TrEMBL record:
Residue ranges constituting the Dyp-type peroxidase N-terminal domain according to the UniProt record: 11-172
GO cellular component, one term: cell envelope
Key word Endoplasmic reticulum present: no
Superkingdom per UniProt: Bacteria
Phylogenetic lineage: Bacteria, Bacillati, Actinomycetota, Actinomycetes, Micrococcales
Protein name: Deferrochelatase
Residues annotated as domain Dyp-type peroxidase C-terminal: 184-365
Reactions mediated catalytically: heme b + 2 H(+) = protoporphyrin IX + Fe(2+)
Amino acid sequence: SSPAVFFGEHQAGIVTPAQDRLHFAAFDVSSSASRENLIELLQDWTDAAARLVRGLDVTEEGAVGGPALKPPDDTGEALGLGASGLTLTFGLGPTLFRDRDGTDRFGLADRKPELLAELPHFSGDQLDAALSGGDLCIQACADDPQVAVHAIRNLSRIAFGRASLRWSQLGFGRTSSTSTAQQTPRNLFGFKDGTANIKAEETGTVDAQVWVGEDDGPDWLVGGSYLVTRKIRMTIEIWDRQSLDEQERVIGRDKGEGAPLSGGGEITEPAFSALGPDGRGIDVDAHVRLAHPTSNDGAKLLRRGYNYVDGNDALGTLDAGLFFIAYQRDPVAQFTAMQRRLAGSDLLNEYITHVSSGVFAIAPGIREGQHIAQALFE
Ligand code: HEM
């Protein structure tokens, strides 16, 4: 319960070993809010978040310590659950700096990072605009789903009148390891996911690929990062009718161990021109080949996604997939370049559809006595 989980050089929830549960929320700032209202909101969110990540109620009075004749400050459903590894990570969308119609609502247009732009349309995208974008975002990750939901619920409540929920997503089951101490989990296609991810212990790679550096600019974002979210629907019923051999060809790894089809074990580097012990190699359009740094000028991502199931449709098909989350230093050279390649010929495309998209600048870590993204307003 050390306050270091909230205050520090970088925000928590990025290189933090990925927790099991997610509630991700995107907000729109109210059209009547002023620059001062926005700053106050970030200040109020900071105060509440610093308490929530320690397992405390949002205020001192909290759920049951206030006057009996007023609604409690805290909604109460996390009483007794503790911190459960909660991290809260705050981001700023391109529309905060300049509206879709070009309005500079908060006097921030000249502080907008050049790399913070709406993502281009990728082949195959079927994005729902109502489930995409947002002026602000909060990623809440915890080992207990109710703790993550409680955090988003109370932060939304605090935002009342200043910002409102635009869309949100629950995820149950991480699809990435972000530490070498973690076992590789599996996605809903049944494959190990996160094997070749950037791990917190690889500090050189984290510095080179995740954190915005001093020469990158703008100054207020140094120590921050960029977040790309993509809700990717997976047509799991169609996938489940493919042979094991075909499923492994699509990914380029075997399903049991997660080893590359070119041979070796889970953490053996794939050899793209070699044949494995059973005579199979990695297909030219296999997902891991197109996503690998050798196909992307050395670019990598810190993936931190979650499985989701949002019920089912009238035909009895599960509405399920991957809520993809990736952190990076440069969204254009990293996510966008990679997704262009994947959208072109990835064998996975037959089984997936991107339905929502978001891009956010992730403020650097918050210093004690300061609020989220304080340097942006100075
Ligand atoms: C690797 C699944 C979407 C980027 C992998 C692996 C699996 C997988 C099973 C191999 C294990 C690993 O190294 O993690 C999926 C599924 C997706 C999806 C099911 C969609 C539902 C994406 C997207 C991107 C991406 C949209 C980025 C634009 C990567 C990268 C790797 C990877 C960078 C590591 C490649 C390497 O260095 O070997 N993915 N993925 N994936 N994926 Fe995906």
